[in-house]
């Protein structure tokens, strides 16, 4: 993984870049420098592995995103629980500047000398209470019309029982009729409604 941020400061020292402990996983809050792959004074190319960092899940390569020289290692190998964002090394643009950082400490950085004031933790202002409109009573519900009268009940047709099989009968002589089969008694005929 690559780090994406660094900081440059103005001081009596040559221009330099602070290399912070990167967040190498989405859940990483602290890490351990398990091994430095570059030593102080060595050149660094973009993409070079600076150190192996042990996260909460794996050992991941800490790669440089810029080129320069590793001027000072501020956190020794094996140091554990280094919070993400803590400066772990200093990088400079040219080899001649490396010697200026021989005795450099984190406290020498302008950022360490004047940390930003902590953000005041204040709760957001309570929401303004706007006057609520007075509810207007709803108009009384319209009375539903009465249901329509029930439909006239059709009288049951008269039932006439005919004995014999359906094959023996000529049902057409009874006129318009509906013929249904009755399991208990055989065939019966209902007069059709006219």
Characterization of this structure:
With 194 residues, the chain is an all-beta fold. It has one helix and twelve strands; from the N terminus they run βββββββββαβββ. It is elongated. The protein starts with 6 loop residues before the first strand and ends with a strand.
Search tags:
194 residues, mainly beta, five-stranded antiparallel β-sheet, 1 helix, 12 strands, 2% helix, disordered N terminus
Secondary-structure class: mainly beta
The Cα radius of gyration reads 47 Å
Q: Low-confidence stretches at least 5 residues in length (pLDDT < 50)?
A: 1-9, 108-120
Secondary structure: number of strands: 12
Q: How is the largest sheet built, in terms of strand order?
A: 1-2-9-7-4
The H/E string reads EEEEEEEEEHEEE
Oligomerization state of this entry?
single chain
Count of DSSP helices? 1
Helix content: under 10%
Q: Report on the biggest sheet.
A: 5 strands, antiparallel
Shape: elongated
Mean pLDDT: 74
For the terminal residues, how far apart are their CA atoms? 92 Å
Write the layout of secondary structure elements.
Elements: E1 7-8, E2 16-20, E3 30-36, E4 43-44, E5 49-54, E6 59-63, E7 68-73, E8 82-83, E9 87-92, H1 110-113, E10 159-161, E11 177-182, E12 186-191
Antiparallel strand pairs: 1-2, 2-9, 3-5, 3-8, 4-7, 5-6, 7-9, 10-12, 11-12
Brief rundown of the structure:
Helices cover 2% and strands 29% of the residues. It has 194 residues and is mainly beta.
